[in-house]
Amino acid sequence: MLRRPWLRFTLNLLYFTTILTLFFFFEIAAFTNAKTIYKIKESGDYMGLLIGSHVSISKGLIGAAKEAHSYGANTFMIYTGAPQNTKRRPIDDLKIEEGIAYMAEHDIRDIVVHAPYIVNMSSVKEDIYALAQTFLAEEIRRTEAIGSRYIVLHPGSFTSKDPDWGIKRIAEGLNNILTKDTKPFICLETMAGKGTEIGRSFEELQQIIELIELKDKIGVCFDTCHTHDSGYDIIHHFDDVLQSFDDIIGLDRLKVFHINGSLNIAGARKDRHANIGADASNNRGQDMIGSEALRHIVQHPICQNKPLILETPWLDKKTNLYKEEIAMLRGEV
Ligand SMILES: [Zn+2]
Q1: 207: part of which helix (H) or strand (E)?
Q2: What would the DSSP string read from start to end of 51-109?
Q3: How far, in Å, is the centroid of ligand 1 from the Cα of 223?
């Protein structure tokens, strides 16, 4: 052997090239077999689940933060006043400083504001359309004051007109109020498609976004009840739904999730929220999405580091299931 070093060299070379080829072959195979690869843009330094619920602002931001903490939440969502009207207390009454200090102490972050759902940015009536814009501009200012980066907006209903007309109307209204200094993302919500709601498909949301001048101010809020009700199969094919979202809108716009069960089957266009995984014994009705599918969604990489907000029904005036639902979604029970 020693007399023929070139032979030993060639054998060794052959041996190492074979190993290397095999290694790369399996690596590449594993890479191409991996499930859909998403363009996830990271923001913030938090890695993990941010789960919370809608909470009351009646005792100010501090009251809201304490309520969220009592549910084991590390984020939350508020309406800055009653969701069904535009009466609002002055910002100074909201105990913002105390609230922010409490949140820092209890690691609560990325809170969300929901615009009242009576704001119809595609109203046919000029006075209501003008009021919607004035109010939303005010609401954006309140969102900034509270220190929230997201304001969720139901795009609007086209009533006696048609979707194309409504889409243009919404975009025009948003163009009137957005400025380059607007801080929070206006998160257009995916809607169930009941009545004449706009936003029942990713295409409709994208058509609005295309007409917006300051596109970097626009995000999307993905509601599990609404997407299910509008016909997306989030139960069995959540990855495909996300892929379609990415193709049509782009996943970098996805900022907030609303995690809700639904009382209806996919495509029912009803928009009636159910408790997570509720069975027939729940007095508010059975969840047709189910805890398994919702837990799968919440544990998906796309949900990391984004506010996941429950808007599930209360069982009666004093009882909700937020604490149990949050623990279940985290996989703690
Ligand atoms: Zn909503």
Answers
A1: helix 202-210
A2: EEEB---TTHHHHHHHHHHHTT-S--EE-SS-TTS-----GGGG-HHHHHHHHHHTT--
A3: 8
- The phi, psi pair for 17, rounded to 5°, reads -65, -40
Rounded distance, CA 158 to CA 179, Å?
Answer: 25
Kindly report the pTM of this predicted structure: 0.85
**Residues 239/250, Cβ–Cβ less than 8 Å:** no
- Distance between Cα 154 and ligand 1 center (Å): 6
In angstroms, what is the span from residue 152 Cα to ligand 1's centroid?
Answer: 7
Task: At 24, list the tokens.
Answer: 């790369």
pLDDT digits (tens, 9 = 90+) for 266-300: 999 999 999 999 999 999 999 999 999 999 999 99
For the record, the structure tokens of 100 come out as 């922010």
Contact 277, 294 (CB under 8 A): yes
User: Which pLDDT tens digit goes with each residue over 153-200?
Assistant: 999 999 999 999 999 999 999 999 999 999 999 999 999 999 999 999
- Measured in angstroms, how far is the CA atom of residue 287 from the centroid of ligand 1? 18
Distance, CA 188 to ligand 1 centroid (Å)?
Answer: 9
Q: What's the 126 CA to ligand 1 centre distance in angstroms?
A: 24
CA 19 to ligand 1 centroid distance, Å:
56
240 Cα–ligand 1 center, Å:
23
Cα 27 to ligand 1 centre (Å): 43
DSSP 212: -
